[in-house]
Amino acid sequence: MEVRKFGLIGKKLAHSLSKKYFEDKFSKEGIKNCSYELIELSDISALLEATYNFNGFNVTIPYKESIIPFLDLLDADAKEIGAVNVVKIDKGKLSGYNTDFRAFMETIKKLNLQNEKALVLGTGGASKAVCYALKKLGIAVSTVSREKEDSLKYEDLTEEILKSCKLIVNTTPLGMFPNINDFPNIPYNFLTKEHLLYDLTFNPVETEFLKKGKSFGAKTKNGQEMFELQAELSWKIWNS
């Protein structure tokens, strides 16, 4: 029987646990004739050649936005978000979806946040999915970026802003393996036990961002649950 091929495309994938996750899933659930590969692309233009015999793949930094022109179809949510993290290939046609926002939204719902405002650190593809999910849940969002003009800058973050935003989500790769000593430059001394710091990264399990938040009494959550949820949603899409 022909092997069904899946994988993850990105630029640098040493940090990724996706291959292990899916290989463990295939083994535990007795799923035969499937493989999952890590595909490092130095440029998105190599996409079609790298995935021509695949059945589907996930997308990570830095290609969640730049992949869109290569797709034949785009799911309504992915189109509105402007970022894709799942691609299904059927009869040579590439269809793009976003499971990041659904997975993030499910994890946030469980936290029962009431009338909160959120700061989202970063403005890339993951940030777009997080902002979309938060707005769907009625949570007001401000983004923080070193570069984007319509976002707050890190140096703009005052005690008053942090006091009004009890949820802070890191969507940047700062602190991700192997650069585990990096962290977003927010004024951690303004954090309190009323804050929740959520890092989409989970390798390492506790990033410097979360450690610093915890040292000032904030609650913390890493991206493990979100990762697993988006992976399972990806699998459903590939098999629908």
Give a description of the structure.
The chain is of the alpha/beta class and 240 residues long. Helices cover 30% and strands 21% of the residues. Strands 2-1-3-5-6-4 form a six-stranded mixed beta sheet. Strands 8-7-9-10-11 form a five-stranded parallel beta sheet, with helices on both faces. Helix 4 (100-109) crosses helix 5 (125-136) and helix 4 (100-109) packs across helix 8. The model has no long low-confidence stretch (mean pLDDT 95).
Query: Structural class, please?
Result: alpha/beta
Would you report the number of β strands? Answer: 11
Average residue-wise pLDDT: 95
The largest beta-sheet arranges its strands as: 2-1-3-5-6-4
Strand residues, percent: 15-25%
End-to-end distance, in Å?
20 Å
Largest sheet: 6 strands, mixed
Approximate shape: globular
> In the CATH scheme, what's the topology name of the largest domain?
Rossmann fold
Poorly predicted segments: none
Task: Write a brief structural summary.
This protein has helices spanning 18-28, 47-50, 76-81, 100-109, 125-136, 159-164, 208-215, 224-238, and strands at residues 4-10, 34-40, 56-59, 73-74, 86-90, 93-97, 117-121, 140-144, 167-170, 196-199, 219-221.
Secondary structure layout:
Elements: E1 4-10, H1 18-28, E2 34-40, H2 47-50, E3 56-59, E4 73-74, H3 76-81, E5 86-90, E6 93-97, H4 100-109, E7 117-121, H5 125-136, E8 140-144, H6 159-164, E9 167-170, E10 196-199, H7 208-215, E11 219-221, H8 224-238
Parallel strand pairs: 1-2, 1-3, 4-6, 7-8, 7-9, 9-10, 10-11
Antiparallel strand pairs: 3-5, 5-6
Helix pairs in contact: 4-5, 4-8
